[in-house]
Structure formats: C-alpha cells, structure tokens
Design the sequence.
C-alpha cells in the first residue's frame, strides 16, 4: 500500500524575539508601569473567579454541556489566585527588606 498524500517536512523559519529599543520604550510607556500591570492582573483574576462562579451555578442547575471547559476555567482561576498570592507576598517582603535597609 503506497501513500501518496504524505507531504514532506518543511523547515521551520527562525523566530525573531528581539525588539528594537524604541519599540521596547513605547511598550513600557503604554503599559503604565507596575501599578497598571498589577491592576490588570487583579482585574483578570476577578473575571476568572466570576466565570468560575457562573460555571459552578450552571453545573448545579444542569445547564453545562462541556464539563472539560468548566474544569479548565476552574484550574485557571486557581492558578491565577495562587500566583497573585505569591506575587503579593514577594512584593510585601521586598518592601519590608527595603524599609529595614540603613542608609
């Protein structure tokens, strides 16, 4: 049996991750700094938690057809919460260390 529908492997193109300095500067100005990034992360966490709460209600009512997506949403929310707690702890510890430095 001969397969004629097999296509040969194509070489991958090289990925370019470097950005010019002016693009990096404009990106950092657009994000608004650390407080804006942190606020966006908290907003994303709240949205994921709300989606998980809606999924839980829909499971209780029997309105869910795709249980796998519900589990994925739940794991996303759990992971995001754990990450937020860790980042908060590290930021507080860094602040405490800075405040204890003698000048």
Sequence:
């Amino acid at each position: 049996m001969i397969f004629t529908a097999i296509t040969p492997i194509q070489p991958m193109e090289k990925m370019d991750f470097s950005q010019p300095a002016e693009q990096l500067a404009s990106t950092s100005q657009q994000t608004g700094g650390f407080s804006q990034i942190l606020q966006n992360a908290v907003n994303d966490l709240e949205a994921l938690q709300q989606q998980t709460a809606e999924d839980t209600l829909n499971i209780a009512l029997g309105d869910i057809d795709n249980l796998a997506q519900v589990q994925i949403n739940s794991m996303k929310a759990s992971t995001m919460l754990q990450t937020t707690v860790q980042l908060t702890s590290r930021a507080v510890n860094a602040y405490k260390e800075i405040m204890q430095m003698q000048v």
Q: What stands out?
A: Residues 35-100 form one domain. Residues 17 and 52 are 34 Å apart (CA to CA). Residues 67-100 form the longest helix (34 residues). The mean pLDDT is 81.
